[in-house]
Design a protein that fits this description.
The chain is 53% helix and 8% strand. By secondary structure, the protein is mainly alpha-helical. It has a domain at 53-178.
């Protein structure tokens, strides 16, 4: 059976975040069934008192990512057990329209635009006041209308061109096969940067590079 790469994206819901909060910080209710029922009731109250906002910047999308709290993922940990954060993301911007109206419509130019969008989304999450907020490859694939494998190749190219780590959730929490920090540091050396600049870009101590 083919593994569903979007399972983590689908499970980052309000109810899952509520259950995680109750289990992590309160612990007075041990029954998962009762927690599910309580989460459903809370969800109904939220929907009633806080309806979906109608004011969202054109081209932006409301999407749930994962907060980059500094801990390693443990074996068997489910995607919904991480801290979820729902924020607006700049999916389509005026700069995109400028690019599309001034650049030739070629495969190479369309790929460059996808790289720009990918970098923008990841860096927006990194710099957000509620974050850093991380996206998975499947999240990015959903937002960009691509496959996770295609996004992975796109990210590899983006990292090589920018010299930035551009961390996804898996990259940050060391899950699965992702580009290593060592590969990033080597790429920066090949660009001719000195150790001080490499340490700053890669968020490592200078002695580690």
């Amino acid at each position: 059976m083919t593994r569903n790469p979007y399972v983590g994206t689908q499970k980052r819901t309000f109810q899952a975040a509520f259950i995680h909060e109750m289990e992590t910080n309160y612990g007075f209710l041990k029954s998962r069934r009762m927690l599910n029922l309580l989460a459903q009731d809370i969800q109904q109250l939220v929907d009633e008192f806080y309806p979906v906002q109608e004011h969202l910047r054109p081209g932006w999308i409301l999407f749930t990512g994962t907060k980059a709290d500094n801990h390693k993922a443990r074996p068997g940990q489910q995607a919904c057990e991480f801290t979820s954060v729902t924020i607006p993301w700049p999916l389509l911007t005026p700069e995109d329209f400028d690019w599309m109206t001034t650049q030739p419509d070629t495969k190479e130019k369309r790929r460059q635009l996808l790289i720009q969008r990918t970098v923008r989304l990841i860096e927006h999450g990194q710099q957000h006041p509620q974050g850093p907020v991380l996206l998975t490859l499947a999240d990015l694939a959903s937002l960009l209308g691509m496959t996770p494998a295609s996004v992975s190749n796109l990210l590899k190219e983006a990292r090589q061109k920018t010299g930035k780590s551009l961390p996804t959730k898996g990259y940050f929490f060391d899950q699965g096969m992702r580009p290593t920090h060592k590969a990033q540091i080597i790429a920066l050396y090949e660009q001719g940067l000195d150790e001080v600049e490499i340490a700053r870009i890669s968020s490592h101590a200078q002695s580690s590079v």
